[in-house]
Design goal:
The protein has 303 residues and is an alpha+beta fold. It folds into two domains: 202 residues, Up-down Bundle (Multidrug efflux transporter AcrB transmembrane fold), CATH 1.20.1640; 77 residues, 2-Layer Sandwich (Alpha-Beta Plaits), CATH 3.30.70. 68% of the residues lie in helices and 10% in strands. A hairpin with a 4-residue loop joins strand 3 and strand 4. Helix 6 packs antiparallel against helix 9. It is elongated, with a radius of gyration of 25 Å. The termini are far apart.
Length: 303
Amino acid sequence: MSMELIKPGIHIDFVGKMKYAVIFSAILIIIGIGSVIFHGGLNPGIDFAGGSIIQVKFSKDISADQIRTSLKSTKLENSTIQQFGANEFLIRTTESFNDQKMLAANVEQPLSAAFNKNFEIRRVEVVGSKVGADFTRKAIIAVVLSWLAMLIYVGWRFEFRYAVGGILALVHDVIITMGAVSIMNMEFTISILASLIFIIGFSINDTIVTLDRIRENVKLNPKQKLGDLINLSINQTLSRTILTSLTVFFTVLALYVFGGAVIHDLAFPMLVGVVIGTYSSIYIACTIVLVFEKMKPSKMKRK
């Protein structure tokens, strides 16, 4: 016996509200792009920009300002210092600390002078700027190729209009999630890239279930208006959509709340993506299928 959140036979007029959904999406996209422009682009982490991360654990209460003061007149003077759990800090810099002597002179000596060796350097990560640039290019190619592969698959499995609906919904999800990351001024790290690829997979899975039901209903009722069939299909799959999305949402929310600072980069975009991905499966993908249908008769008339 399957669990149903929504009783069978429900009829919500989704198609009637698609105009407002498109306006809402446009506003979210404009705000997101505006934020990226305002911040001068995305804020790349060291995976993409190159540089060093030094994680330091102190044995007593210390503030970021005290660390910053101790690092004055070193190569870490203009670094970003971020608290990372209790008495633990991440020092991020565009400098490349490949050399142990450089690390000793710029980190160990000034910190020892200020805090009497009451600290431990837990890790040092270094990424060269060339590696970062190469990684950025490969990340963009990976996301675009995932869109193209899905366009080909959905186009072959269904029809072209369904494929375009599905892919534009994915592009919409990625743009809005990146906008949310930019608004929060988060560093664009490899974890955020991983969460974007998760969102693409989650969203297309959700979209395909809805599109498959539309296709079935079109075959069963070829003379009925497409708008009515889309409404019927969304209502029929609504319970499954909400259950799936809520399960993923609460799992990711638990990760975000209890996973600590390390998991935030991964969990925050996933939270945004699950909500937006569910919304776009209903409103964006189906709207595009409907728009395609309206364009087709006008082409026939012109011919």
